[in-house]
Amino acid sequence: MENYKKSKIVEKPSPLPFTNLPSDIIEMKVKDGSKIRNLMGYAIGKMESDSVRQILFTGSGKAISKTITCVEIMKRRLKGLHQITKVLFKQTEEIWEPIVPEAGLDALTVKRNIPAICVLLSKEALDSQEPGYQSSPPPSLAGPSIDFCPRSLSGPLKD
């Protein structure tokens, strides 16, 4: 591969693994470089309004753990959320071009299956027969509520 350079990555479109989602559902696409405080500030603000009943978190590859962290923060902050989790693979194609075109080498295409996760959080009960369903814990079993407070952008916290 020392004679090739990666020219582009094409992500194949894949449908969401949930049926009957509202067309205006908020989809939080978590990326590896996403800041949790930015994601949470937006998502919690939307879910605290009465008009939003569901929110969808998606992440793939290195962003899976960050996606799960965001979902767990949401469940701690907003009590009574129901959850359905789906694990899937997204297909990508990497196109590798020869560094020296005159060398007679052909372009290479590498197909990869990248793991991904989709988590649907809802204020209303979801289909409990759906694989990956987690009901809202009863208030007696729910842990303490934590307040999410983004750090000031002006610098570190002072004692």
From TrEMBL:
Domain annotation DNA/RNA-binding protein Alba-like: ranges: 27-87
Top-rank lineage group of the source organism: Eukaryota
A family per Pfam: Alba
Primary site of residence: nucleus
Chain residue ranges for the region called Disordered: 127-159
PANTHER family from the UniProt entry: RIBONUCLEASE P PROTEIN SUBUNIT P25-LIKE PROTEIN (PTHR13516:SF8), RIBONUCLEASE P SUBUNIT P25 (PTHR13516)
Record protein name field: Ribonuclease P/MRP subunit p25 like
Organism: Terrapene triunguis
Organism classification: Eukaryota, Metazoa, Chordata, Craniata, Vertebrata
Gene name for this UniProt entry: RPP25L
